[in-house]
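G., the chain you wanted modeled:
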Amino acid sequence: MCISIPRSSSTLANYSCLNDVLAKDDGETLIEHTKKVVKVLIELKNLFENAGSYFGDDLLFEKVYIAGLLHDLGKIMPSFQIAVQNKSHWDLRHEVASLFLIGDIYINGKKLDENEIIDIYTIIVTHHKSLKDLKEKWIGYIEKSFIEVTKGKIEEGIVELAKLLEADRLSARRIYHDIFLEYVDYVKKTYNGLTGNILDLDIIKNYSESRFFQRFDRIYDIVQDSKRKQKLIFMIGLMKSADHLASSGQTEIVKIKIDFKIFEKGIRLYSTQEKASKIKDDVLLIAPTGSGKTEAALSWAKNNMKDSDNDRIFYLLPNIASINKMVERLQNIFGKDKVVPVHSKTAFKIYENFIEEKTFEELSEEEKRKINKNVSQQKSLIKKIHFPVKVATIYQLLKNAYYIGDYEINFAELYNARVIVDEIHAYEKEAVCKLIIFLKFLKENFNTKIMIMSATIPTSLQEFIIKKLGIENVLKMKDEELESFNRHIVFRLPGTLMDYVNEIACKVRNGKKILVVANTVETAQNLYKILKDKLSDNCIKEEGIKLLHSHFTLKDRDKIEEKVGDYKLLVATQIVEVSLNISYDELYTEPAPLDALLQRFGRINRFREKRELAPVFIVEKDINEKGYPYRDREVVEKTLELFKESPVKLEEKAIQKMLDEVYSSYDYEVFLDPRLHNYLNELLTEKYDNKDLRKQFYEEFDGITVYPFAFKDKVIESIDSRDFYELELYKISLNLGTVLGLMKKRLIEQEKINGIPINFVKCYYDSEIGLDKNRPLEIKK
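Predicted structure as tokens:
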């Protein structure tokens, strides 16, 4: 029976029975929140029902249920309730306090051994903070006085409660104990209803009985066991996801049906597609652009779902434009509510979906606020175990090895999932090696199924992938099938692209659609200006000529890519090499490694709509070698040598031999980074400094975000109004070398705006040319 307590703005508003106990400062009670957590855990158990068998633990889900029921036990303390109702800071972690109150645990009358209880301890104590963080910041600094501190917090709350009741401490203590016992009774009944087993708990009646320190210290011993560590990562991932989803009000996990339709009825399949649909193990697929690799991958995934307890698919692509296109394509197959993008600009893409027909500028402030809230919720859900199909960059996977974010959730979702790596040729050797190390870890520790595919993979890389991942299934097209993919004739030209601008302009005037690819942003910008000037006689509309590179803001680049296949002349950098679904008539390109050139060729006569071979022209020299992206000059020279007998009819069946001539001496073992092994081996313990790893990751893979100085007022306004979508519109990602060069010239202005560090680049910017590093702004102080 609840005892009525007078309300107060600065103390406990109510604390007389279990239904009064709050979990959140928004008024949600502990029972309400715990019920939602349990509901999500039931969904997760249905999704991963064979996990206990894989990890060799018959009690795996029972322990996760117990942890879920007890994870917020510490919030019962009166002192926490005072803090949460006053929305003030509580200087004790509630998850640590929860452990303090747990004694022995019994299932069906049998006492769990200490190892089992420590599993539950670990799940509970890490559902917000890492072990390292707890040890260093919350437990280590008070050392053995922790028990006295915890006891003090309980006593502090009891004294406050006694004052509110105008009663003695004994009465207040009885209320606290009654609520505690009421919660224990709720936990036992709920668990019994879930599992059919009988749970019993010892509660801590005497503070000296707590075995907190012995158990907490043993966690560190246990996580040194690699197999047990992976199991704990999985269980913590389930707990974190359930807690976060419950807090956001989401209690259902979205699933896909395995009878999804991939091919139109009556369509003739390629041999690679037929074989992929029958394989239930890892696969390496090599097939030309336009040969239906995506369909082959989905057929493989579908076949691997038949006897699986997990329907999750991770489809990895090299860049954001290709990811957004693939999301739309997969949504047509699985449904719009089941496929989501995961990349550094996810919020922008989600925002676009919510805006629908309007532009950002047309939205009212109320519409912006409402959409911002929806975007925030959707972005949060993407980070949890919720959506079944995620299309991402490889870096979204690799960041888990650097302890970024709630990595346990991601590892849990990757258990028994299917990971499809498309366009593996597009990455630097170091990135490929890191990815292979990470995939090997997933395969060995989380039973992840892997498919890697590309149009072009040198034999040296094939052998490296096969060896490291133990792949037995390598799919390639038959020679007679490859014949139908011959579509290019290659011309090697002396000089630079600058020598052919008149020729290019003439062809555009005569109705040809021309793609020009330069190796640097600066070269592309200069070529664009010259070609635009030569075509300024209004023979084609201005919007028919476009420039595309990576130094545009997100807003401007998105507009250009939206119609990227429609232009009469497109001048671009190597960003067109990957997954842009475009088809131009002819190509003029600067020299590059063969695999990169082949991808550029793939944007010409892509759909084989023309029976004759389409011409592609490679010049022998770069216009500007400053900022040259290819470190291995020998590879570029070997590539040019292949086309010395120009013109060369490019046959698909001959491409593998050509690749092997260029990359004959490559040893990928040289590019392996032993640090990644070390980081993965120290998951949970996190012996490495998290800030250093985070910095290393973003410098290596994600680039550094800058904002053109022209948008400084808009950036400040966006931060002040917390409109982080608008902030995304103005960002540009530059590599570390470029930023250091700009800093040397004092062209980067670093500011903190409302505590957020911002880099402004003091160079000219417009929506046509992008960021021009060679045009510094003169800014008056």
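The longest helix spans residues 169-195.

Shout if anything looks off.
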